[in-house]
């Protein structure tokens, strides 16, 4: 392949302005109905759904198209129990043994989170997301990756959006540190655990912290120059 090979731009649909506006409005309405869930039902979710959502995430833009991400999707009860045990051990250090800085604890207080994470076992799926320091667009590539956090963050956002669009609730979970995920998921040491996404249906008893419903209005998050 020549380095500058090109094909005509494709897969693009020009929309009438009214439809564009309607789609933008509808998409906002869809995403405004996403809420982090910390109480999951045990009901199963087909692997094929999770796989398609990961495929969607894998279409994300990335630095030099190196796609520096890996998604380990866990449904095995034994592995979920191992994740829960390891995450709760880290979280006990954070919440109960004073490792958390006071200002961080204060920021988390309105969410009512603590070291107990039963949902890591009850939810049907955990997706551990890893950031790769080296790679490339083809299997076996070992080039240096660029803009790793930006790329993996965008792909993760797309995964959260895909799961929500498929009718699933999620939680973005970040036990700190998360190196235990490499061992449990069998990932190499040079991959950095990025975050752990929990996916499934909300339990009937699930609640939303009202703090999480405060979303900044457009005027506070954007300017049109
Ligand atoms: C990078 C990141 C890390 C997070 N880590 C945790 C976590 O470890 N535990 C948790 O309960 N929620 C975690 N959250 C969820 C946030 O608390 C939640 O997104 C926020 O309160 C807004 O609520 P919403 O997601 O329902 O809009 C995290 C979110 C992000 C983006």
Report on the architecture of this protein.
- The model has no long low-confidence stretch (mean pLDDT 95).
- The protein is an alpha+beta fold and 225 residues long.
- It has helices at 17-32, 47-57, 77-95, 102-108, 119-122, 148-165, 180-185, 218-221, and strands at residues 69-74, 125-132, 134-135, 143-144, 169-173, 191-200.
- The protein contains eight helices and six strands.
- The protein starts with 16 loop residues before the first helix and ends with a helix.
- The strands form two sheets. Strands 1-2-6-5 form a four-stranded antiparallel β-sheet. It has a two-stranded antiparallel sheet with strand order 3-4.
- Helix content is 38%, strand content 15%.
- It is globular.
- Bound molecules: flavin mononucleotide.
SSE layout:
Blueprint: H1 17-32, H2 47-57, E1 69-74, H3 77-95, H4 102-108, H5 119-122, E2 125-132, E3 134-135, E4 143-144, H6 148-165, E5 169-173, H7 180-185, E6 191-200, H8 218-221
Antiparallel strand pairs: 1-2, 2-6, 3-4, 5-6
Helix pairs in contact: 2-6
This protein binds flavin mononucleotide.
Residues 35-36, 38, 111, 113, 171-174, 195, 212 line the site of flavin mononucleotide (FMN).
């Amino acid at each position: 392949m020549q380095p500058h090979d090109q094909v005509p731009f494709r897969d693009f649909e020009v929309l009438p302005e009214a439809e564009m506006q309607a789609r933008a409005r509808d998409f906002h309405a869809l995403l405004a109905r996403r809420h982090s869930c910390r109480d999951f039902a045990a009901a199963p979710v087909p692997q094929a759904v999770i796989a398609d959502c990961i495929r969607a995430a894998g279409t994300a833009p990335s630095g030099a198209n190196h796609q520096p991400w890996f998604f380990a999707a866990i449904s095995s009860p034994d592995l979920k129990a191992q994740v829960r045990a390891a995450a709760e051990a880290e979280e006990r250090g954070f919440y109960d043994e004073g490792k958390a800085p006071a200002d961080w604890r204060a920021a988390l207080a309105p969410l009512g989170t603590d070291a107990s994470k039963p949902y890591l076992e009850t939810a049907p799926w955990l997706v551990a997301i890893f950031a790769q320091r080296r790679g490339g667009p083809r299997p076996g590539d070992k080039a240096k990756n660029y803009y790793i956090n930006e790329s993996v963050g965008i792909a993760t956002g797309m995964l959260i959006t895909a799961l929500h669009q498929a009718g699933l609730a999620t939680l973005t979970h970040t036990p700190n540190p998360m190196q235990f995920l490499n061992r449990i998921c069998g990932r190499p040491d040079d991959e950095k655990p990025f975050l752990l996404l929990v996916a499934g249906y909300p339990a009937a008893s699930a609640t939303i912290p009202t703090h999480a419903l405060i979303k900044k209005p457009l005027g506070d998050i954007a300017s049109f120059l």
